[in-house]
Predict the 3D structure of the following.
Amino acid sequence: MARKEEQELSRREIRRRRKKRAQIIAYLILVLLALLAGIGIFFGAKQLLKISNDKKQEELESQQAEEETQTEAQISEPTTEESTEEAADELDVLVDSNIETMSLEDKVAGLFMITPEALTGVGKVIQAGDGTKTALETYPVGGLIYFDQNMKDAEQLKTMLSNTILYSKYPLFLGIDEEGGKVARLGNSELGVEKVDEAATIGATGDATKAYDSMTTIADYLSEYGFNLDFAPVADVLTNPDNEVIGTRAYSSDPEVVATMVQSAIEGLQEHKVSACMKHFPGLGDVVQDPHKESATTDKSLAEMRETELIPYITGIEAGTDMIMISNMLAPQVIGDNTPCCMSPLLVTDVLRTELGYNGIVITDAMNMGAITNSYSSEEAAVQAIQAGVDIILMPEDFKAAYQGVLDAVKGGTITEERINESLHRIYRVKYKDTATQ
């Protein structure tokens, strides 16, 4: 009996020990599992952190690459302003390189714009053949102006102008008076082009888009025939109701209306590849005399002109007009004597160039008008106009005498060759402006 009890106690002790051992093993297993789990979490977190860091690094590198690309693009693709400056530099190089190759004789000839009759000596020019070719070789003028007598039919006009361009060794201005209304060489011809209202009618509407549209129409048919310069728009403010020379050719008696119309007119022409020439600086709206026959005079002071006559020119200059025509009238209250405006350094250089900031082409009104020929020889008028700062002499009474007068003035030191080059630079900047942007 005692032995059985001992055996039972022994078995219980064994079971107790086994249970305790199992508990210890279970506990160790739990500790081991916890340890393994901790290690797993650590390495997992580390891996996640690595993945996150890798992703951030990729994003950073991508952002840096994008910024570098943008920087390279900015360097390789200049801004509009830089492109404009670059084009202007290229234009200056092109212009100056061409002027450098010209002889003095060719340079001086380039300052004149005359009729084809004055060039060739023929009484009525309706074609451009060997006579035109020979004349342009001898006197490579800067441009030619055409009138009613030069236009026979559409095909004749196109052929004459295209041949003239071919025969000239330098680019030419081929110009015409095409204002609309009563002053329209093509519009009032038998060629059948679309007629355009006179300026007064357009100005009375107060709608500047009509001024733009009218000049767009004109530019389209001028370009079709081969013209690249229009002596328009009229920028005169009609302040004198007795003025018959300008009359309905002016947009208005209100300088602000004229300014608005002139701006749109210039844009209408030049956006369609025809150069505009505002006229007649500083303003013919106040005179009553006809400068074609005699001297026309204004008694206005410069202060008064700033309030009226000059306002359209400020706007036109801002609009980028290629050319401004300066009148033959007298303005003694401004100039101080009876020197015509086109020969006045004060008006051309001090007022138009310096005060108004105009750097484009200045051309005289026709120098064969009585306002000039009654008091000056062709050579005197041409030399004084160049000295005043004018770039182009339009239609001198005697072209060859005027040409020789300027040439002699340069050779004699009265006018420097640098002064001639300045005018040619302004002229060729306009003639080559489309070439430089292509």
The chain has two domains: 1-77, 80-436.
